[in-house]
Amino acid sequence: MVDSALDELARWRTEVDRIDDAVIDLLLERLAVVHRIGELKARDQAAVAGMALRPAREAQIIRRLAAKAGPDLPAPAVTRMWRELLGATTRLQTPFNVAVLADPTAPHAWALAHDHFGALTPLLAVETAQQGFRLIGAGEAELLVLPAPLDDSYWWQRVALTLLDSPLRIVSRLPFCAPFCTDGTSDDGDQPLGALVLGALPEEPSGADLTMLALETDLDLSRARLRDLIEAGGVELVELASLRDLEPETAFHLVEVEGMAEPALSGLQQAFAPLRDRVLRLEVLGSYPRPLQTDSTAG
């Protein structure tokens, strides 16, 4: 009886080995296709001049595979495996470096960047967002990862203004599937600790997207009033971060809403129409794929 059980166990282990070998064969086949895609892109000088990174396409791949896997292989596991694969294959086409704000008070940004871009992608620590911008300007990095803005992240106003005066935009929100990297919540438990990826990439819809905008108003407009106007205007608000300054002259907010840039901007312009000249600035900072929602993150 014992020998029979051991023989059956050995057979199943042999079957696992066979499947593992088949997975490697398929990955190598995928790699060959990626090489072919890179060769085709190289024929187009406009394409080869930019990065191979396509956040919208990557989001579509992971959404499709997570749906196909179903509950037997949870979406966080699918995301973790394919993020590593996508990071490696993207670097084969166009190597790139990622600058990450190494803030001791926000260590989640480094962890999220590592998990998103994979073990083979070099991460460069920067002490300030402006240092990250300088690395990109010098060609030493192509992307910059910053902690997502919270209400007390007033330094994000300078980041937003720098973005508006450059070709860089927000191109991704991390994590793409929340549980695959432990990011927790802020100390007060109100806002999730995520990160945003900044870079100069073409805008491309993924089919489910978010847009972040910079909103500057006079000081008399409350956060509650802004939320009411956005809701009344039919725009689906995801997050509203009010960047608090010690001695503010105006109120500066980062507004994250559903949809791509053009309809999002149009919808907010209509929503804020009653404010007239009380809105001093409303500009798009970038559109990017909406992170995958799982049962633990939905709602």
What do these coordinates show?
With 299 residues, the chain is an alpha+beta fold. The chain has three domains: 2-89, Chorismate Mutase Domain, subunit A (Up-down Bundle); 97-199, Periplasmic binding protein-like II (D-Maltodextrin-Binding Protein, domain 2), CATH 3.40.190; 209-289, ACT domain (Alpha-Beta Plaits), CATH 3.30.70. The chain is 43% helix and 20% strand. It has nine helices and nine strands. It has helices at 2-42, 45-48, 55-69, 75-93, 108-117, 129-137, 156-164, 223-232, 261-271, and strands at residues 98-101, 123-126, 143-147, 169-174, 195-199, 209-217, 237-243, 251-258, 279-289. A five-stranded mixed β-sheet has the order 2-1-3-5-4, with helices on both faces. Strand 7 (237-243) and strand 8 (251-258) form a beta hairpin. Helix 3 runs antiparallel to helix 4. The radius of gyration is 22 Å and the shape is elongated. Residues 180-191 have low confidence and may be disordered.
